[in-house]
Amino acid sequence: MDHFIYQNGALCAEDVPLAQIAAEVGTPFYCYSTQTLTRHYKLFAEALDGVPHFICYAMKAASNQAILRTLARLGAGMDVVSGGEYARARAAGVPGDHIVFSGVGKTDDEITQALQGGIRQFNVESEPEMQAISRIASALGKTAPIAVRVNPDVDAKTHAKIATGKSENKFGIPISRAAEVYAMAASLPGLQVVGIDVHIGSQLTDLAPFEAAYTKVAELCESLRAQGHDIQRLDLGGGLGIPYSRSNETPPLPRDYGAMVKRTLGHLGCEIEIEPGRLIAGNAGVLVSKVIYVKSGEDRNFLILDAAMNDLIRPAMYDAHHDIVPLAEPAAGAEQDTYDVVGPVCESGDTFTKGRSLPRLDTGDLVAFRSAGAYGAVMSSEYNSRPLVPEVLVNGSDFAVIRPRPSYAEMIGRDVIPDWLMEDDAADG
Ligand SMILES: *Cc1c(COP(=O)(O)O)cnc(C)c1O
What we know:
Structural class: alpha/beta
Largest sheet: 9 strands, mixed
Distance between the termini: 65 Å
Number of strands: 21
Bound molecules: pyridoxal-5'-phosphate
Oligomer: single chain
Strand content: 15-25%
CATH architecture of the largest domain: Alpha-Beta Barrel
Helix content: 25-40%
Number of domains: 2
CATH topology of the largest domain: TIM Barrel
């Protein structure tokens, strides 16, 4: 459920008509709903009620500081995957001991930054990384809390680009080698083992792969404890899928996920950490765009929008489906047309969808891509020198621009012309 619904014929974000925001901000823009973000966070908190838990929002899904602050105020920690995300979380007011650092390629600088700024836990993905954290923590006179990310070799049954829990994926340490790696952790200075970490992929639409992975984690927890390791926390990653198509998708609910977690892991007395990203932010955001032209091809109609693959890359990158709806509510029985919906970028890959049946649209009409809150704005670029798409946050009847659209001067002003190109006549020698 989200808070983007038609009221008096106009698609609203909570109580604000999106067309009103479009008039003030211009298109395209991303718009997020505070109430939806809040609701999704609370669904997870309720789902894990009864077991000690800590919810770390995977901020790579949508990392604007206004979103982070909205969630942090509810008690969320953050799962970060770079020094930049760590800095963003801290700037948004998240304390260091609410931050979990994930990712396969943490650099010395990033490890130092987190140790100096404060960190709840490093999720360690390899032995060389463990050695680096040990070396840096020792040099700084600190102790680094760590969990080892294990790769349980289960098929998450999701898109290949977002499956992370098979042995062929670059993530984590094979679960079969965990005993060895935990023994190494215990032998190295500057480290404190606090738990086990696992994350098998994203947009999972079935609980079975999670349950298979968590069952393996439960066994591992018991055997590591028997070997003398103090396993206090189980970090279960993120990955719960969302319905991108309202008509035919019903992924499991946080409630069912929570019940399964309690059933498979509850007896261990561990603190449960989860790292949801998509489920919190995905349906809490839309991308609003304007129709520039409707172009009739030989055998198809192209709906040419002012949003493009640089603003929302998911269809091009993951073959993702997004429901597209007009901001003006179509009359019951309104005429439909079939469209290939495309952007202005000079690539055939800049196609959001082909052969989509939509209410008839015309130049100037506004549409919203639903479920665009996660892996949307964060993956945008300035390809084709299109300024980064702005972001807006709605809260009840208020809205605020939380990232303005850069002007052309700001966008091109970051280029630096070297000395040897400064003179006008340089080309002539
Ligand atoms: C991406 C990621 C997540 C979040 O995944 P979602 O599918 O967005 O919930 C959580 N943990 C780690 C380590 C990740 O890489």
